[in-house]
Amino acid sequence: MQGPLIDTLARQGITRRTFLKYCATLASMMALPPAAGRAMAEAMAAARRPSVIWLPFQECTGCTESITRSHSPTLEGMIFDMISLDYQETLMAAAGHQAEEARHAAMKDNAGKYLLVVDGSIPLGLDGAYSCIGGRSNVDILKEAAEGAAAIVAMGSCASFGGIPKANPNPTGAVSVSDIIKDKPIVNIPGCPPIPVVMTGVLAHYLTFGSLPELDEKGRPKAFFGETIHDRCYRRPFYDQGKFAKTFDDEGARQGWCLFELGCKGPVTYNACATVKWNGGTSWPVESGHGCLGCSEPDFWDAGGFYKALSVPADPLKIAAAAAVAGAVAGVAVSFANRAKKNTAKQTHEPITVDDLEK
Amino acid sequence: MNELQFLTWVRGPGLDIAVGIFLLGVLWRLFEIYSLGRKKDLAAPRQRSGASGLHTVFRRSLAPPGMLKRSPVSYIGGYIFHIGLAIVVFGFAPHILLIKNLTGLSWPGLPSQFIDLAAVVTMAAMVVVLVDRITKPAKRFLSTFEDWFTWAVTFLPVLTGWMAVQHLLLPYTTMLALHILSVEILLVVLPFTKLFHAFTLFGSRWYNGRVNAHKGVPV
Amino acid sequence: MSASLEKGIHALKEVIDAPIASYFESCVHCGLCAEACLFYTETGDPKYTPIHKVEPLRRVYEQEYTLLGRLKKAVGLSKPVTDAELDQWQELVYDSCTMCGRCSLVCPVGNDIVYMIRKFREGMAVSGHVPDGIRSATKRTVEIGGPMGLKWPAVANVLRKAEESTGLTIPVDKEGSDYLVLLSSMEIVNYPEYIEALAKIFHKAGISFTLASDAFEATNAGIQIGNSDLAKVIVSRIVDAAERLKVKYVLSPECGHAYMAIRWEGPNLIGRPFGFEVVHVLELLDELRQKGVLKMKDKLKDPLILHDPCQIVRRGGVLQAPEPLIQQVAENYIPIADKQKWNWCCGGGGGASAIHTEEAEALRAKVFRIKKRQLEEAGVNTMVTFCANCRITIEEGLDHYEMNTKLLGLTELLAEHMED
To answer: Which residues in chain A are contacts of B29 at CB distance < 8 A?
Structure first.
């Protein structure tokens, strides 16, 4: 596919007007000024497609599924048309040595300019042997590919923070991209899976302004990860009124009350699900009646159980009972010592006479 | 350690340790204090209605005649911050959930806007009480490091809890973790400082009421 | 000659009990006890805050009976109690504490501070940190028989005079009487009218009574100085006499601490309940009033207020007798705001009136301002009370401020206006 993106879109039945609206929405979502939407549309429409290399590591392909799979072609899907996806194992036709050659060719041709997308964590255990492609470990491939990259996008919680592979006891020694690569700009788009529009938003920003969007201290685009699920949740008023579903099938659940007591991690999860929703704005986990798992937060798998409310102990109290017994024992021991001491004092009491009142 | 791991630690091992030390301390101290015993009063008792240990346990919660006027800040400030603490601790739904999880006891929560107001009023009262401690001669004279320390240890959980809910200063997750940590510090120091009055005041009032009731004086 | 710090600590170890422990653990340093103490309210000096007066006792408790305290002592965080320190505290425990117990009524956590003071004095007494005045009063009581060194012949003399002026016989050492009447030296010396009044009332009511030549003194400096051994020696005289004379009742005189000593501390000092009842003279009088025996021929017209002695009312439990009695004899009795168990001390209780140092006397004069204020606020020139020690202290105070207030004893007042 050559030529400007707008022609491609037109061929697929997407009008210039629809595209403009989409860009305006994207711009507003990213908290950019209104004029940025038009600039974005123009820049993207005319953009020369940058080379993108997509490396899948220790992952489940959920991230790729999230972004590419849909029943009807979406604008998110179309955005892929504006990049030159030179390597993506799941999507590319080539396989084996052919595929590796394509990657090498792209890396060479676009040295210093290509965008590196990574999904999946990188296992470091046994010298990286837990996950290899073409006989090379993920960590080797990442280091090599990162060297010539203009920037790296860590797609999903695994690439961003280590994700489920890193969950306790982390048998493969999984780490995130940013644990290995320190000298390149990295955008983390966590989520299990991440929200597609965040990915396209970041790509659009990159194409329009030639730079990455503003990131928070965890490397996430602030525009999408600036607020918690809880703060933007449509069930929030119920939380404030103290109305909670106690089980998944009680009256409260049917009334759509807050899912805090059922373990919702919305209060500590920074993501855009509550505003962007999923599947083309159809719904999202809390709307469908299940609490947020906190999947876009680091180490969410080990945060004390999905169905435990945030304010209850993450683990059962183990030492408390023993400590209580120890306290009682200590107390009784001190009691005996004290009583003995007092009795001794009483038994050694010497009757006082008036002469004893003076020194 | 990231903030979610910090939060998970304070909700997990941290809480376990804090509750453990709290229980250990409370039991140890209660035995230590009350096992000293006391002599039976051999004088013939005088009966009078309204005079008993139990009467004093309750009566002493009210300001004695004339005292409110003598020390209004102590009483009004004291009432507000104690009641405020009770509202915040026992009325906020997430707290009730924790209590339910630990003890099985549960009751309906209060609206969070009300809790929010109670927290602000409690903090204001605590600041006023602190200023009173600094400015009143008798209070300042009696004050030791422990008094300032226990004030801070009591104030911090309210402040961090309120700040977490209000999203002030730090991200919610970090603030929530700090809030829980501050409560854990409170639990750990409670049995070993004057904060232990939360337990012993009932015994003290009862003894006082009992000793004086023997003489027929309702105190 | 053998008082020492070690003995003091030893004594404290004997008396520290669960209430003391509970009280110290409950204190939140709120300072409200200061607001109930006349030595603080009248001077504004925070060192007079009641709970501060027992600070050395707290440290002994902590260091001897708590695990953390022992640890703190071992590493030097909690300093041992020293002689110099107790010497410094002597003024706080005796001069500026009358054991009035008002602080015990206001403590929000329920601390009975006067209970703590009483126990602390056990340590102070045997470590030699007591005011000379109280020490010599104690010595005189133990060695001679009364705090003023009064002997029986002198008492017999006073009784004879009372017999002459009333024309009634005052029985002595008469077995099988209803009442054994006790006196306080102060009454014998300063207010002999009390004895006459009593003789008249007993005669009128037809109640038999006697005095004991070996146990006339009701006061007990042993409980003021804070030594149970000596207090026991003193109280045993009364118990022995009462049992020997087989009386049903022992009548405590108006004197406040005498009532405390015989009624409440007595059985605990000798270690067994009494076989007789101890009655305060006002309790008896009120009973007679209710029976209609105590009729007045006329009433005192002067507007007056009542001073409730701490040891009889707040700490003794004689709460309801005084008011009906005063109303019986006075037309213009004006109840004051802080009355009955809320009364303010005269400033001389707990042995304080026996301390005659310049500082102690100046302090007593200063704190008397609270009584002065009560008189002025009520706008009266007459005050009635029922404790010989309060009377002495109040007289001194009135003298100091050159007030022309008339001070009366309730029993005498009743006797004076009683139907013949």
So the answer is: 331
Q: Indicate which CATH number applies to the domain containing A211.
A: 3.40.50.700
Beta bridge mates, C180: C210, C250
pLDDT in tens, B17-34: 999 999 999 999 999 999
- Domain of A210 in residue numbering reads as 5-224
User: Do B217 and C341 lie within an 8 Å CB cutoff?
Assistant: yes
Span C100-141, pLDDT tens digits: 999 999 999 999 999 999 999 999 999 999 999 999 999 999
Q: What pLDDT, on a 0 to 100 scale, did the predictor assign at position A69? A: 62
Which secondary-structure segment (H or E) carries A175? Answer: strand A174-175
Number of domains making up chain C: 3
- In chain A, the N- to C-terminal Cα span, in Å, equals 111
Rg (CA), chain C: 22
Could you tell me if C138 and C284 lie in one domain? yes
The residue segments making up the domain with residue B11 are 3-71+136-214
Q: ipTM surpassing 0.90, yes or no? A: yes
Chain B residues within an 8 Å CB radius of A327: 23-28
Residues 154-183 of B with CB under 8 A from A: 167, 171-173, 176
C314 touches chain B (CB under 8 A): yes
Integer Cα distance of B71 and B77 in angstroms: 10
Chain C CB contacts of A334 below 8 Å = 66-67
Q: Least CB-CB distance to B19: which of A260, A320, A328?
A: A320
Judging contacts by C-beta atoms under 8 Å, the chain A residues touching residue B26 are: 327
* Contact criterion met (CB below 8 Å) for C110 and B201: yes
Is the Cβ of A226 closer than 8 Å to some Cβ of chain B? no
Distance CA C249, CA C276 (A): 5
User: Does A95 share its domain with A183?
Assistant: yes
Q: How far apart are CA A168 and CA A299, in angstroms?
A: 9
Residues A236/A274, Cβ–Cβ less than 8 Å: no
Given A224, A246, A274, which residue is the final one in a domain?
A224
Whole-number pLDDT of residue A2: 47
- Residue A251 and residue A180 share a domain: no
Rounded to whole angstroms, how far apart are CA atoms A137 and C266? 93
* Minimal Cβ distance to C108: which of B60, B215, B218: B60
Query: Is pTM beyond 0.90 here?
Result: no
C129, C147, C173 - which closes a domain:
C129
Q: Residue C79: which domain range?
A: 5-129
Number of domains in chain A: 2
- Give the chain C residue whose CA is nearest to the CA of A352: C229
Q: How much is the pLDDT for C188?
A: 85
pLDDT band at A77 (very low <50, low <70, confident <90, very high): low
**Do C146 and C263 share a structural domain?**
yes
Choose among A231, A299, A313: nearest Cβ to B101: A313
